[in-house]
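To make this tangible, this section ends with a sequence with its structure tokens:
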Amino acid sequence: MKFKKLRLFCFFVFLLSFAVAIFYPNLSTFAINETVYLSNDEFDNGALFSSPLLKTTSGESVATATGETKQIDIKLFGLIKLKTITVETFENENMLVGGNQIGIVADANGLIVLENYPAFGLKKGDILTYIVASSRETPLYIEADLNSFLETNNEDFKFKFVRNGKTRESKLISRGKMSGENLGIWVKDKTSAVGILTYINPENNNFGALGHALTDPETGAKIDAKSGKVFRPNFGSLEKSTQKHIGIMNASINKRADGDGVLHFSGDFGVFGCLNENSALFAETQKIYPIASRYSVKAGAATLIASLDGGAPEEYEIEIIKPKFQLKPNGKSMLVRITDPALIEKTGGIIRGMSGSPIIQNGHLIGALTHAIKNDPQKGFATYIDFMLR
């Protein structure tokens, strides 16, 4: 009897181990409840699965503007249905890969508060979006909007503002206690930053850069830009990272009237716009790579492209330690490590100003560098390219 129980136990352990071996690499796929976007090549190459025992069969297909939407049944041994996933395929996209520095001058979607003003309930980094007076709201796009209101109105008012992504209202501001038209607060309506150009779409010159949200360097506020311009910056100096300090790549922006292109908007995954046909940024972006979605990214060797001295971008070796499965877009998609001795010698690892550096794996553009890890600057995070593109 004991021998029989032992055999049953061993058989159960074997089945469990067998199931884990089959399904563990694909467990994340079974959590998918949203549409999966894959290029035709990725779909044909089975990017969603690594187990040979899992088969997919196509159900109903519907044509879309860019490809097809398909209902895909996932089956064990091609017989036992486990799940149905919606996959939208599209023509393989090719991008000019950047790696060169880009200067950004952005129009904030409101007025950025530059100091703390406790009397008004305002803090440094708040974004003023409206003046509220007599049940009407006056939008604040540029500093002149605030000045115009103060010059033409004598009413008490409040500010509507954004702090940490949430809309709030300031304390009531009494015009009777003000000194004429002088409110006495410092604000600005623009911000600037320097990062790395990630890609240019060769079909329309649209670009993406930075890979993460645009932040104002003076206040640390996250900026949702509504417009702006981009420029080819002038390299200044480079400060290496150490175990106690994240270094920085310094550059200045020569704000020429025409610029190198326009900024359309910024979001959680970078800044986006369109370059002029004669932009100097094109001269340094000669390589074209197909893109690959997060479903094709694997742990292992990859390369990072960046200009670290104002010259042409160079390619450096990195390791993707762990690509994370993410049902919802998140900037910290991949844990990466700098392994190239030349890059470590030059920068000590990842430094500020490298955000947006494109990452290449298996001949495909897969993502962009976004963050350094403070106490270990040879490690950092990157976002998937499909989060920037979609």
Notes: The helical segments are 2-23, 40-44, 143-152, 341-347, 385-389.
